[in-house]
Fold this sequence. Notes:
Layout: H1 15-27, H2 43-51, H3 53-74, H4 83-107, H5 113-132, H6 140-158, H7 163-172, H8 183-212, H9 216-261
Helix pairs in contact: 2-3, 3-4, 3-5, 3-9, 4-5, 6-8, 8-9
Amino acid sequence: MTPGSEPKHAADESVGDRVAEEVVEELDLHKAGEPEDQPLPSMSEQIAEQLGGVRGLIESSIPVLAFVLLNVLLGDNVLDLPKKTALYWAIGGSVGSALAIGAYRLSRKQPVRHAVNGIFGIAVGAWLAWRTGDAKNFYLPGILLTLGQVVALIISVAVRRPIIGYVWGVLANGGKHDWFRNQRLFRTFQWLTLVWAVSLFVRAGVQGWLWLADEANAIGIVRILISWPIYAATFAYTAWAVHRVTSAQAAEAGTTAEPERA
């Protein structure tokens, strides 16, 4: 044993050193400054969080449901109130329910991002319906917004910048867009973007056809019963398609690297 390499005896340690070590062990402070490599949530989990989960989907449907029910119950279908009177009550019920959801979330100190987005969309539709005196215009902003998204998705594929790829990079890839250099993932995101365009066009197309036919209540029913299932199915298919490609590539990389380790 060379001089100076002898193990330090516990008695040689100062009281301060021993106390410091005990505090570190007790509070687990030695890990405080070290970043932990925690796996990112899956794409489907992060997408669900962005949508607000099942609760977010339900809460976003409540104002629309209130509008439809009040317009049907108070209008010529049941109570036969004047058309504008029924419409104003429906607008008030829709906006009121959206505000109530936001207030409830604030009172519980819960995130209000989804509630605020819902209130804004409901307010624009309610204003149009009030200005025109026609219940169908309550749904017009949503129809036009969805059609605008369809156009944006198709353009992104045409210029080879698929929007779904960028969304995946932000939501499920830590903000990295290395998929752009991965030909298999790039092609996957190209056709997935087209799948989304078709999905949104079906939603907007059915509602737009009903809007042209002056079927205001039918638009609301379709929006609640058809739109969200289509949305959820497209999300699930997207998550499955991306997982299939990334899993296959990971397996291929492992098979290729195995001889090198041997």
